[in-house]
Design a protein that fits this description.
By secondary structure, the protein is mainly alpha-helical. The chain contains 9 helices and no strands. It has one domain.
Length: 237
């Protein structure tokens, strides 16, 4: 009888030990490359008070509603881009990670050039009036806006591929077809502002002393191309 009791206790002990081992093994399941990337991005975002959803309403909204408590200035962005670039090196074999990180880097670059375009809040834009003596400022603003739009388009392309090829991974960071279309539309708006600025200056000031008439025409061409550029064929599913 005592022997049976000991056998039962031993069997129960083995069962408990097995359950503990299974639980430990399941708890130690290795994270995927994408999960590690998300952790790395979260660490960067938390350090700088940022998130991919900051761009949902466009650069104008982000300018008027800066990150709190520490706004991100144009000069802060290169160092943050370096952090994302280092993270990318750790996930070279994972395409989904690369697409997401590339998208984030390009959004940061777009934000940087947008903020550089705000260097001349009045002289760089024609909507509040202008003079031909402000051609330098308008041209510099147009260049920065055009570069912002260029980086923004590339960001959308990367994130659109992520959403189409890896919908589950995109869903984790709330990158949906609607989000992509909304953000891409904000870049249309920036391209339109740049086109209007350079168009007005070109029309009224080409006979005035300008830094380089050809340079104005080049920026006009870039802005026009960016405005006409077809939106990515963003999936609806």
């Amino acid at each position: 009888m005592a022997k049976k009791g000991l056998t039962s206790i031993f069997a129960a002990f083995l069962l408990i030990a097995s359950l503990i081992s299974i639980s430990a093994l399941s708890g130690c399941k290795e994270k995927t490359a994408y999960e590690k990337t998300l952790e790395g991005i979260e660490e960067i975002d938390n350090a700088h008070g940022m998130d991919i959803d900051d761009y949902k309403y466009g650069m104008d909204y982000l300018w008027e509603n800066p990150r709190f408590p520490k706004p991100t200035n144009a000069e802060d962005i290169p160092a943050i881009v370096d952090e994302f670039s280092e993270l990318k090196k750790e996930a070279l074999e994972d395409e989904a990670s690369g697409l997401l990180i590339n998208g984030r880097i390009r959004l940061l670059e777009s934000e940087k050039f947008y903020k550089l375009a705000k260097k001349y809040p009045s002289k760089g834009y024609v909507e509040d009036g202008f003079s031909c003596g402000e051609v330098d400022e308008v041209l510099e603003t147009a260049k920065n806006l055009n570069t912002s739009v260029m980086h923004g388009r590339i960001a959308i392309e990367n994130l659109d591929i992520l959403q189409k090829k890896y919908p589950k991974e995109a869903d984790v960071v709330d990158v949906s077809p609607f989000w992509l279309k909304s953000v891409n539309k904000t870049f249309d708006n920036l391209a339109e502002v740049s086109l209007k600025n350079v168009n007005v200056i070109s029309h009224f000031c080409l006979n005035e002393t300008t830094p380089d008439d050809n340079e104005l025409e080049q920026e006009f061409g870039k802005a026009n191309d960016l405005m006409k550029e077809a939106q990515p064929e963003i999936s609806r599913t």
